[in-house]
């Protein structure tokens, strides 16, 4: 199982290197307070990582809040 995970990670890392090498052009970003120029591969990777982190945070908050509600309900039942 560990070998499969390592092979999948290596495959996606290699795919990322290829995508980054094929998309070397710069992309302009204009935020209200600053301007940035990033290679297309770096912009894609940044968007991917931010989406992954925000999605994970959202899922974690949803599970933890549901868990807290169940714990409170369990304590109320135990008292009664």
Describe the protein's architecture and organization.
The protein has 80 residues and is an alpha+beta fold. Helix content is 76%, strand content 12%. It has helices at 2-22, 40-79; strands at residues 26-30, 35-39. The protein has a two-stranded antiparallel sheet with strand order 1-2. Helix 1 (2-22) crosses helix 2. The longest helix has 40 residues, at 40-79. It is elongated, with a radius of gyration of 21 Å. The termini are far apart.
What features would you highlight for this structure?
76% helix; 2 strands; alpha+beta
Compact summary:
The protein is of the alpha+beta class and 80 residues long. It contains two helices and two strands; from the N terminus they run H-E-E-H.
Spatial gap, N to C terminus: 47 Å
Strand order of the largest sheet: 1-2
Q: Which ranges are low-confidence, i.e. pLDDT below 50, for 5 or more consecutive residues?
A: none
* Helix and strand sequence: HEEH
Radius of gyration: 21 Å
Helix % is over 70%
Number of strands: 2
* Beta-strand residue percentage: 5-15%
Helical segment tally? 2
Which structural class best describes the helix and strand composition?
alpha+beta
Shape: elongated
Average pLDDT figure: 85
Secondary structure blueprint with pairings:
Layout lengths: L1 H21 L3 E5 L4 E5 H40 L1
Antiparallel strand pairs: 1-2
Helix pairs in contact: 1-2
């Amino acid at each position: 199982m560990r070998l499969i995970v390592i092979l999948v990670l290596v495959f996606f890392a290699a795919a990322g290197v290829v995508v980054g090498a094929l998309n070397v052009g710069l992309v302009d970003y204009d935020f209200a307070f600053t301007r940035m120029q990033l290679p297309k591969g770096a912009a894609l990777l940044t968007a991917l990582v931010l989406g992954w982190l925000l999605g994970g945070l959202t899922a974690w908050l949803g599970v933890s809040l549901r868990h807290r509600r169940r714990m409170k309900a369990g304590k109320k039942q135990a008292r009664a």
